[in-house]
Amino acid sequence: MLKEKIQEDVVAAQKERQELKVSTLRLLLSAIKNFEIAKQGTSYTASDEEIAGVIQKEIKQRRESIEAYKAGGRQDLVDKETKELEILQTYLPEQMGEEEIRQVVDKKIAKLGATSAADIGKVMGALSQELKGKADLGLVSQFVREKLSS
Fold first, then answer.
1. What is the pLDDT of residues 3-19, one digit of tens each?
2. Which residues does 43 contact at the CB level (< 8 Å), separation at least 6?
3. Model pLDDT, residue 150
4. Exposure winner among 29, 31, 43, 119, fewest CB in 10 A?
5. How many Å apart are CA 86 and CA 26, to the nearest integer?
6. CA 24 to chain CA mean position, Å
């Protein structure tokens, strides 16, 4: 299971004195625990798919922080957040490339018969289930909006 792998990696990182990796993975484990508690209390164990969702959320937070730090001229914090982002991404399945995402978006729009911006929600609902954990949903949303807004 993914959670056990993360816990094992924390121990390994501690032995190798990789402080940033240790702190990043501890924050991730904390986020997973908070998710489990919010879901059903302390006895609930998150599935790998749910953990991937938590990781995606953590990655999104890092990306937002990177943008904010860049705007604030804090390169030291940009570097730290970027390294954390890279650590987190290693726990997700291989992400789809932009071209592959565009193809899936095109097929789904054609299948659903979507023609206007009013259909964005319907298309995104279908795609978010299909691509969760496999692709950056922000990018998927951007491509859907491009297609249906033109």
1. 899 999 999 999 999 99
2. none
3. 67
4. 43
5. 15
6. 15
Could you tell me the pTM of the whole model?
A: 0.70
Angle, CA of 62, 126 and 136, to the nearest 5°: 20
CA-closest candidate to residue 95, choices 129, 52, 54? 52
pLDDT tens digits for 13-71? 999 999 999 999 999 999 999 988 888 766 788 888 788 888 888 988 998 999 999 99
**How many CB atoms are located within 10 Å of the residue 20 CB?**
12
Contacts of 107-110 with C-beta under 8 Å, sequence gap 24+, read 109/144, 109/147, 109/148
B/e letters for 86-114, b = 16+ CB within 10 Å, e = fewer, are ebbeebeeeebeeeebbebbeebbeeeeb
- Structural domains of the chain in order of their starting residue, each with its CATH number: 2-89 (1.10.1510.10), 98-149 (1.10.10.410)
